[in-house]
Design goal:
Structural class: mainly alpha
């Protein structure tokens, strides 16, 4: 009886451990849609994450945003000043990048996750000093920029 109880317990333990579906979540799942609003719970995974912000900075150069949005750009093109016509909320900045660039149609050219990263970067720009932005441009000298980068098609 002792052996059968112990064997039964061992079998039960093994069967419970092996019943998992082996689903492993390495990190947050990639967003498949635009932010719902400025209270979207997914925003923190991008806006509060330095890696996501830095990736957005890379895409800012890759997609040619830095060609128009420079430190000395006039009016609405001067993103580091934090004075945005379309609003400064995450969902508002996302929509401005994705939908309000005239004929560029970034929503159709840039994957959703990269739009999230770009948005996090743009919202973080007012906190960057000119020296930090210059350093980032120097770090990205060897990376494709603007017309040299067509992005995922």
């Amino acid at each position: 009886m002792w052996f059968s109880t112990r064997a039964a317990f061992g079998l039960l333990a093994v069967s419970l451990c092996s019943c998992s579906n082996e689903a492993r979540q390495v990190g947050p799942s990639l967003p498949q849609t635009a932010p719902l609003n400025d209270d979207d719970p997914r925003i923190g995974a991008y806006q509060a994450n330095l890696y996501q912000i830095s990736q957005g900075g890379r895409y800012f150069g890759w997609y040619g945003c830095s060609g128009c949005h420079t430190d000395d750009a006039p009016g609405a093109r001067d993103l580091p000043d934090g004075q945005w016509r379309q609003g400064s909320g995450f969902a508002q900045v996302y929509a401005a990048i994705a939908d309000r660039h005239g004929q560029l149609a970034f929503r159709q050219r840039i994957p959703v996750e990269q739009l999230w990263q770009l948005t996090a970067y743009v919202r973080d720009l007012p906190q960057h000093t000119q020296d930090k932005r210059r350093r980032q441009q120097a770090d990205q000298k060897s990376e494709p920029v603007g017309p040299a980068w067509t992005g995922p098609q």
